[in-house]
């Protein structure tokens, strides 16, 4: 008998969650025009896990994009947003879900790639969902900003009784019930999972223990930065890369990660740790080559305008799917 595809799978649906203007010199180099800007999306995704035997459908949203009402951001974040105009928030995650007949209460969990303003949207809209963040993310909500304008955070961003921070890949798994995990089967499973090597990725968590959805440790951009690897019904994969890279040319080798000196002559980079960010891109690039044990892997960057435009034409936005 021929091999059979695994029974359980996930479907992935792009969600329109705002656009903003990106000054390219802060993200890639070399550039001929140092004043070049482009309109980019801040993509979010609905991931639906289909457990065929149990007849269960778990709904997860990966990233929440931009906040519908930008005046609801804190003053320091609003000051930074002023440098990213024009901004379009006419359609946010809630409106995008509604296009397919869903409301926030239908969402079981929200996985945030990281806690920058353009990925966190409005968590308050999701009053019953569990929030899952990478290790180190929660500390950002109580720390002083680094001084760079994009690194401002809101202490009241996430509901502490429904937020679960993953354990560090090199630390032991949690041995006790944690806040944010006590009453939820999904986060309890994650608390008891060990990070495992998968293909080119050193650390992954098998969310449903069936190979259909993995959380991938993707350090470099910001503390707690994580990605997800999704296996579709046909057995191929989609890798949602968040801000591991801001331009597909970083994967192709046409461009490199940008860095610059500020007014105080300090070296700056959009990534917190440029060396780690490069290593993370290396692993993604390897998966993107389609030559690993994973087979075909589509990589989607959160701010890929070309991907977003093609996806709209191809009907890959919810209720359509990838």
Automatic annotation (TrEMBL):
Pfam families linked: Lactamase_B
GO molecular-function terms, A-Z: hydrolase activity; metal ion binding
Domain of life from the UniProt record: Eukaryota
InterPro entries: MBL_superfamily_lactonases, Metallo-B-lactamas, RibonucZ/Hydroxyglut_hydro
Keywords tagged on the record: Hydrolase, Metal-binding, Zinc
Protein family membership: Belongs to the metallo-beta-lactamase superfamily.
Name this polypeptide is given: Metallo-beta-lactamase domain-containing protein
Cofactors (names): Zn(2+)
Record-annotated Metallo-beta-lactamase domain positions: 41-303
Annotated organism of origin: Fusarium oxysporum f. sp. melonis 26406
